[in-house]
Design brief:
By secondary structure, this protein is of the alpha+beta class. The protein has 2 domains: about 90 residues, Helix Hairpins (Orthogonal Bundle); about 180 residues, 2-Layer Sandwich (BirA Bifunctional Protein, domain 2). It contains 10 helices and 10 strands. α2 packs across α3 and α3 runs antiparallel to α4. It starts with a helix and ends in a 6-residue tail after the last strand.
Length: about 325
């Protein structure tokens, strides 16, 4: 989520980024308008509360005290209502795209930046991962749907062992690169899942919330790792902090669409190892490239292509940098 101070100081830049991501730039105008009203009301309410306390300390009832009480009775609910509207719109404003990311409306606007290897040519009809998983007895969506619901699944035998082995492989490789392995909680407070862009409501809702609790199931270890140093000041000489986090991930996948809704591409629960780095803002691009380099260390050799994704709206909540790799063979993303 963008800091409101950044939006105030960079209104035109933010509006352009919002527009490039196929969102309505009017959101920026609305949030700044509500921000102004909110700040003015906060000052007014704080002044009234201060004067109310001063009158109370005088130890006697007064007409002024009654008027202040009545005014606060009106102003405090008004402030609460404006803050709710303000937060709702602020959470809808996406992170700004990288200046290197091409602008486009769908994946036909993607730009291929690198290609290596040759796609394997087969002399038989290929099966997709669903057919393979079912025929091998390792992937079972039918039982998942029966026990839990659509887009849940069971993994058996070698499939389960393979998933655990891949996570262990990632942990081993990245530990040698100085990443600290972390197993995070699967739940986080709303402050953290909202702050990382995972909404519980709306057209692109992701988060399952716990009724009666300020908690939601995390969509990625990114949520908990981002929250782990909240309200802390990290000394510059301690940076970068590099983590490889492991968690179960839960996503409502509202707005899932097309071919990417099939099988393991769009599910409600999965496990994932997540690289996460705390660094200085000016080092962000450098460490983004470093993360991509480490993805290459983890690659199992399959002919591959790397694309700079256009600003495809359905994916904007998932990553600040929309750079993805697309295998020639189907795989779990």
């Amino acid at each position: 989520m963008l800091d409101i101070q950044f939006i105030r100081e960079n209104k035109d830049l933010v509006k352009k980024g919002v527009s490039d991501k196929q969102f309505d730039p009017v959101l920026v105008d609305k949030v700044l308008e509500l921000d102004e009203k909110r700040r003015n009301l906060i000052v007014k309410v704080e002044q009234l509360r201060k004067r109310k306390n001063e009158v109370a300390e005088e130890g006697k009832a007064s007409e002024e005290g009654r008027k202040i009480k009545e005014e606060l009775k009106n102003k405090e609910p008004e402030l609460k209502e404006i803050e709710e509207k303000y937060n709702k719109i602020l959470w809808e404003i996406p992170n700004l795209p990288s200046t290197k990311t091409p602008i486009g409306k769908n994946d036909t606007d993607n730009v291929e930046v690198k290609k290596w290897g040759e796609p394997i040519k087969f002399d038989f009809t290929l099966k997709d991962h669903l057919e393979l998983g079912k025929s091998l007895g390792i992937l079972d969506f039918e039982t998942g749907a029966k026990v839990t619901g659509s887009q849940f699944y069971f993994v058996y035998g070698d499939g389960a062992l393979l998933e655990l082995a891949l996570v262990q492989y990632a942990f081993d490789k990245l530990s040698k690169e100085g990443f600290l392995p972390v197993i995070t909680p699967d739940l986080a407070k709303s402050r953290y899942y909202l702050g990382t862009g995972y909404m519980p409501k709306g057209d692109e809702a992701q988060t399952y919330t716990i009724e009666g609790e300020d908690l939601g199931l995390i969509a990625t270890a990114e949520v908990t790792l981002a929250g782990s140093h909240a309200d802390e000041v990290i000394p510059e000489d301690k940076l970068p902090l590099k983590y490889i986090g492991y968690s179960h991930c839960f996503r409502k996948e509202a707005g899932a669409y097309g071919k990417y809704s099939k099988g393991l591409y769009r599910v409600h629960q999965f496990t994932k190892a997540e690289m996460f780095i705390y660094c200085k803002p000016e080092d962000s691009d450098k460490f983004h490239e470093y993360l991509l380099k480490n993805k290459k260390l983890l690659r199992i050799i399959i002919p591959n292509e790397k694309s700079e994704s256009s600003l495809l709206k359905p994916f904007q909540k998932y990553k600040t940098f929309i750079v993805f790799e697309k295998n020639k063979l189907e795989r779990k993303p």
